[in-house]
Amino acid sequence: MWKVVLVEDETFVRESVKEIIRWEELGFALAGEASNGEEALELIRREPPDLVLCDIVMPKMDGLELLKETRKAGIASKFVMLTCIGDFESVRQAMEYGASNYILKLSMSVKDLRETLGKISEELCAAKPATPPAREIERGPDVLADRIAHPEVKKIIRYIEHNYDQEISLASLARHVMMGENYVSALFKKKTGETLIHYLHRIRIEKAIEYLRSTDLPVSQIGQNVGFMNDNYFIKIFKRMTGTTPSQFRQSR
Q: Among 4, 102, 141, 159, which is most buried by a count of CB atoms within 10 Å?
């Protein structure tokens, strides 16, 4: 999961951004938030995030100065600037200092945020060293379920094992065990060492590997068979977890 710090002095905007995006489904986790640049800089220095989603105009320290100070500290976090119409000179300077993108707050939509986060995720994946070969990620759900004592976590693991090919979300898993989404997410991570979305992806990729080894089904069909309705997303997650694309994996076998 890519870690995000959200920096915005307007409470309404900050809360809206937090609520309108299903962060985990896009591979991101909110690691912290701040209402001004000074607070944010402390967070970033203490535990550098992968992405800073940052307003430009803020009290104490604005977004542009925060970006500059972050770079002075040798921290390479991606920056996406939230801006209002008329701030384009600040945006231009931010891009010069390495900001990846900007979003207009007045016209910001779920689509804008999802597209921007998708682009950032691709950039982060491209910069990340290749992960271990697929054979090294194969540790079945039964092994994990056997060593987990917590009944609700075990129930989630079994549910994913039997329904990985269906649409699964944090909300649906929370309903399955009749717990709150935030609690379930934190509990699963504490008991297994993995986030729910990472575990779901891992199980789906393991199942995809079985198909690639034992069938001649097209890659797109395999992706659908294991629960990925989008071919590009399937290929991206497969490569993130195995270091190779499904087609390359099949050819190597």
A: 4
Q: Please, what is the end-to-end C-alpha distance for the chain in angstroms?
A: 29
Q: Are 63 and 44 in contact, with CB atoms under 8 Å apart?
A: no
Question: Residue 133's pLDDT is what?
Answer: 45
**Residue 198, both tokens:** 């990472």
Neighbours of 206 (CB within 10 A): 19
- Check if the beta carbon of residue 30 is closer than 8 Å to that of residue 18: yes
**Whole-model pTM over 0.85:** no
Residue ranges covered by each domain of the chain? 2-127, 134-252
The tokens for 80 are 């996406």
What is the signed CA dihedral for 35, 108, 68, 118, rounded to 10 degrees? 110
Could you tell me the strand order of the sheet in which 2-7 lies? Answer: 28-34, 2-7, 51-55, 78-83, 101-104
Fold classified for 2-127: Rossmann fold (3.40.50)
Written as one letter, the residue type at 2 is W
Chain centroid to Cα 153, Å, comes to 21
CA distance 22 to 244: 27
Q: How far apart are CA 103 and CA 113, in angstroms?
A: 8
Place of tokens 């575990």: 199
**Residue that the structure tokens 């307003």 belong to:** 55
Distance between CA atoms of 96 and 99, rounded to whole angstroms? 7
- Model confidence band, residue 21 (pLDDT cutoffs 50, 70, 90): confident
Question: For domain 134-252, which CATH number applies: 3.50.30.60, 1.10.10.60, 3.40.50.2000, 1.25.40.10?
Answer: 1.10.10.60
Span 206-230, mean pLDDT? 92
pLDDT for residue 47: 86
